[in-house]
Write a structure and sequence with these properties.
There is one protein chain. The protein is mainly α. 73% of the residues lie in helices and 0% in strands. α2 packs across α3. The longest helix is centred in the middle third of the chain and has 25 residues. The protein is elongated, with a radius of gyration of 13 Å.
Length: 66
């Protein structure tokens, strides 16, 4: 799964290595915290599927830099 996340996040984003790792960590921690509630609503959804969906969402959202 790590390689899959890396390839998804690498996409068109021009992130430095450190920025990409931070993003991956934030997505994973968010998934870890929010998965129990999601699992309660949909027990057939695996953590890997849920986390992968969050990664896809993060890839499509515009990255704000300020």
């Amino acid at each position: 799964m790590k390689a899959k996340m890396h390839s998804i996040l690498a996409g068109d984003n021009q992130l430095s290595g450190n920025e990409q790792v931070r993003m991956e960590m934030q997505i994973f921690l968010h998934a870890l915290n929010s998965y129990p509630e999601r699992f309660a609503r949909n027990p057939s959804l695996s953590f890997e599927e849920y986390c992968g969906g969050l990664v896809q969402s993060a890839k499509t959202e515009p990255q704000g830099r300020g």
